[in-house]
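yo

u said u wanted the structure for the complex thing, so here. seqs first:
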Amino acid sequence: MQLVELTKKAYEKLIWTWKPGSEKESGDAIVKNLLLHWFPNKVTKGSLSWSYSFYLGTISFVLFMILVGTGLVLMFLYVPSVERAYSSVKDIEYVVSFGWLLRAMHRIAAHLMVAIVFLHMVRVFLTGAYKNGGAVGSNRPLNWIIGLSLLVVTLLLSFTGYLLPWDQLAYWAITVGTNIAGSAPLVGESIRNFLLGGTTIDQNALIRFYVLHVFFLPLIVVFLFSWHMWRVRKDGGLAVVDREALNQKPESIAPVKSKTYSLLGITNGTTVHVQNRMIDEERNSVPSTPHLVRRVWLVTLITFLVVVALSFVFRAPLEAPANPSVTPNPAKAPWYFLWLQEIVTITTIQIGSFTVNGAFIGGILLPGLLMVLAIWWPYRDRSGIESVGVWFAPERRRQNWVFIGICLLIILFTIIGTFLRGPYWKFYWPWETWPTMPVKF
Amino acid sequence: MNHKTIEEKLEFVKKDKLFLSVSGILFLLVTAFGFYDYYTPEWRSYQSEFRDLVDEKFGPERAASIPAGLQQTYVPELNVADRCITCHQGAEWKGLENAPQPFRTHPTEILEKHPISKYGCTTCHGGQGYATEMQAAHGFVEHWEKPLLGKELGEFYVMSDKKALMQMNCNSCHRYDKQTKGADDINRAKQLVMEKGCRACHVINGRGGTVGPDLTFEGEKSPEQFNYERIKGFKSEFSWQVAHLKNPKELVPESVMPNFNFSSADAQALAMLVMSWKKANVPIDYIPGHNFRDIPTQEEKEKEERMLKGPGAFFVKKNCFVCHSVSTLGIEAAAQIGPDLALAVEDVQSRFGRTLDDFLARPTGTMEVVLSTMITLTEEERKEAIEKLRHAYELKQKELK
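structre next:
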């Protein structure tokens, strides 16, 4: 008997370090729980709409979960050592059951995540969703900044993962990337040294990239993502809700019987409940469970399906083992940094015998300025509340065009860098064939 | 926002459920395809063919003893994990000498000294041991630089012995052998290296002249390190080496390497030899005789001694002997591309209409390039050279009388 008591006590000590002492405390415990409040109780139909959000945020999250799932299995199979990394990836490709699929899915999901997170940002901008609506305590510009940080961490996650296979593609992409980081004035060399754990890409760099890739950066994503979602709730849901509220004509409804908010008989006029924007009303909204839950499952399933299908079509490549003495031609950064590499090339100018190195302009200054601009933008955007949560609001036309212009330039440079730059970074039209590179035999 | 009725609200629910079902079914199909793909790899059909073959030839009992599933030879000493035997299951069987590939018995003689368990497959044959699909395993895929050195490649390069290319891998361990049994092309190439005196200009295995580049690890170079501008046809390191050996100046106009007029077969053999000179990470037990050094033969040693200590030592030290013999001083040219300097006094006069002293002070033509870049003579050295050449000429005159 005593043993049972003791076990019970031990269980409570270990598991229930805190127990609600009252009903209020129980309620608070639920309210404060992030996981239980991922979704609101009810969602408006506008929030559910496909054409407003395209569920890009949800897709990003699903892709992240696919990456975590496949990545956790890959961690059992991959060896982060210069001697073994390459052969362990070969083994994953050839002898591990479904290993090639895991790796292909991890790669496809990573590429898609970069693209989808970027598109999510574009969507938020074009719908003016970083602007505060009517909700009290709303701070959407902050959430926009959290989102930008998530974009940066997504890029870093993908970039750190790039080195791990330890093949030529990995080695030289990281060489290009870290050299660009090294071009920053004053601190550049230190940053490069810090990233690589030395002056060359070797075991130190590999283990650094590995630990960042599998632990610290995902941890930061989980933290930032939770904050991001929590802010969405605190900011009154998706920005489209503010739009819906604005569109709705105030109408009279009967006061809620169970509550006595009105100052009965003390003042004249209506009570606070008589005229209201009925956004939470049954006609305009549906319970999150099952409708939003079903939608999220649907998006999850489709995303998963697309990732698996693409993995069957595009097997993850593995080039020759990393060889510091042989530079592949052309040596390219990962595709999402190719717009920067392109700008680096354009801004590298030869004036007589003097060369202006574009690495600083294209690699540090320009992306840095764009980031500062993006952070500052919501504070500068003084458009009215009518522009919140609506695609291409007329009042925001000019800034939308500026933003689209910048995005198109980035996309254009990325396409040029990816598809039109051949050996020696020479420009080739799509109909021109690249010269064949020599082989051993 | 239109106020919708509950029925209208159900419309999107219906659609969602439909999409959910459709994507669920699609997902099932994709999963089924994944499993189908997993259970029907290429090697499985080879394994069942092999079982049928054994069943037919040796009876069901032996057929039942054949291991199923992926097979590999793991040799940690050589860092090799070869999955070739997954399909080549008959390699070590007796009685399948005439079976079709991939089931044929491996030639037994060579296996006695090189058992698969100790060497793996790719150590000798090349190819991609990691792979479990034929095309990839044979290494004829992008990003794999060590293809199977077999018949296909031999035919591609029009080799007289189609399987000769494999001998390159023999030379990873047999590098310091003078002759290796079974590696005829490599043996021929080693013979040529001696005959043509490649060491006069090139360091090979730590010994040799410095006129040309060190060739000790020539095989470590990557294909990108060669200039293919003047290569017609297929651009590979092997074709570069062959073309260069056949006519060095055609590929590298500034090269001073003489044209030895090698036949195609000789040039191919030499290309194989130089490309086999790699930093082989082989444990000492794999090296025949545990010999890690290229020991010169007695004949080579004597010749070197003779030339270095003889009256013509000056011409060896200054590398003149690379191109020129000085016959009366016991100097035998390595490449024999220049005239015998024993006749230089007379020769220079008749060819250039100038005295030897004058010519060496202000050389023209090839010698202008050689004496300004590769061999530089101080005032004293020039005097010494002229004196020695005069002496050689006198000896020659006596000889002729």
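Chain A is about 60% helix and 5% strand. Residues 16 and 377 of chain A are 46 Å apart (CA to CA).
cya
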